[in-house]
Amino acid sequence: xxxxxxxxxxxxxxxxxxxxxxxxxxxxxxxxxxxxxxxxxxxxxxxxxxxxxxxxxxxxxxxxxxxxxxxxxxxxxxxxxxxxxxxxxxxxxxxxxxxxxxxxxxxxxxxxxxxxxxxxxxxxxxxxxxxxxxxxxxxxxxxxxxxxxxxxxxxxxxxxxxxxxxxxxxxxxxxxxxxxxxxxxxxxxxxxxxxxxxxxxxxxxxxxxxxxxxxxxxxxxxxxxxxxxxxxxxxxxxxxxxxxxxxxxxxxxxxxxxxxxxxxxxxxxxxxxxxxxxxxxxxxxxxxxxxxxxxxxxxxxxxxxxxxxxxxxxxxxxxxxxxxxxxxxxxxxxxxxxxxxxxxxxxxxxxxxxxxxxxxxxxxxxxxxxxxxxxxxxxxxxxxxxxxxxxxxxxxxxxxxxxxxxxxxxxxxxxxxxxxxxxxxxxxxxxxxxxxxxxxxxxxxxxxxxxxxxxxxxxxxxxxxxxxxxxxxxxxxxxxxxxxxxxxxxxxxxxxxxxxxxxxxxxxxxxxxxxxxxxxxxxxxxxxxxxxxxxxxxxxxxxxxxxxxxxxxxxxxxxxxxxxxxxxxxxxxxxxxxxxxxxxxxxxxxxxxxxxxxxxxxxxxxxxxxxxxxxxxxxxxxxxxxxxxxxxxxxxxx
Length: 638
What we know:
The structure is a single chain. By secondary structure, the chain is an alpha+beta fold. A seven-stranded mixed beta sheet has the order 10-22-21-20-11-18-19, with helices on both faces. Strands 2-1-3-9-4-7 form a six-stranded antiparallel beta sheet, with no helix packed on it. The radius of gyration is 32 Å and the shape is elongated.
């Protein structure tokens, strides 16, 4: 037995990959050792039978050892399947009955070889559809384990574990090194390889004020970065978490399979019994039991789903639950947020108007509370301050009030930066001195107030994503009947963007609760997708039949509320996801037909003696491999 154990471990080392868990390795090792032991018992029984032909009972005991080694686990699983009425154990139930029939018919060789061959074929079958964990483990290695901590005052550099990094620390990222944590470039310029996050092959140029993310690579320049997230809270960590969650998706089984499988085992047993009585040949009945093992039936849903997850992840679409198939095929309305969703999200500064202060002071005040916010308006202000060399303090006690703005305290003064209506609600003075907001403005206007007095306002200009109009047209070709924009922005700016994108309806000036109410109303007429990127979209994303978060590097709240996250902010991935869902469902229905057709053909061939039980142990997997090949066609979707 020691030699067999060594053979099993050696085979395991050759066949397994680093991505296998400890439990999986032990399971495969046990299966290999059991197979060798069972075959050893078969060979020993055969030799003993030849050497001592008059002692058949002893040979039968040796064979029984081999049968028990391979058969007991199958019998136990079969009994559990009977007790729990679990359709996924149909194969073990049929094989267990076949083994028992072989034993009482004294077909000991078959009783040993059938389960051995079935386990061998299933092992390679399982290995052929594995791989998701390999991708995740490969990605984990892309996040740097170390960081170069930099002291601006002394110029000292110190290498520390990346896990020890804290928010606000200064690090150096040298050419050829991985970025260890999310942060903002404060000095230097370079090109960053972001394929791991966005899937885009072209390097992204970064300058002072630009964001860099963990899991990406610095190609050719030395940059100094101020960290904004700790090691375990980076965008890259969120993406890995989403990928790991996608492995645990509950696969929606086709209902026709669920219903049929409850009748499948009694049907097969009835056919096997009828053939045995009609032909007086138990071997044919055993062959029917073996070839009828429903391996293909178990893959009709899982194989297309695995392919769908693979092709989606490759496009930067991270799937979090089974609504991907169940709901995307039925949606008829798509709801978009405006800023950062159908628009670029990186706002440009249009015009600055001040009252009693100069532009630099206004920018400094706004930046002091904006540095802690991920909102596109806040990002634009910080970018403007860095670009113009405007220094700013870091306000304390910053709070972001959804749909209104940000507030904090700097040097004992209360700083507010947000909408005019919020200023008015808070009793701020001086906003009217700046005049009315132009009706034809192309983007939002934010006001700044110090200790309750408005000191100026900044006009922002938003631009439509270049792929937005084509994406809306693609959605219509996918069967989407209505497209809607829900935004907190002014109606004029929202309407202009919607017209450029070809969107049907626009609702502006909405607070998060207003968006939620509108989504509920739209759901009364059909299935709804909501696409958003910020905290103010979280309620609508959660309420939607399918919520899609734009940018896995965006708001944590939006991603947690959504069912799907788009890593690269490409709107074309929304119609692509719908196409993948519809193709996946079509493949499931095709697989159902293929699985049943192959099963009944194999049963018929066995009934007429064309296929033996031993051959059936190999051939019953034909249906499974046909389904795997058919499902793999999804990988070629354009």
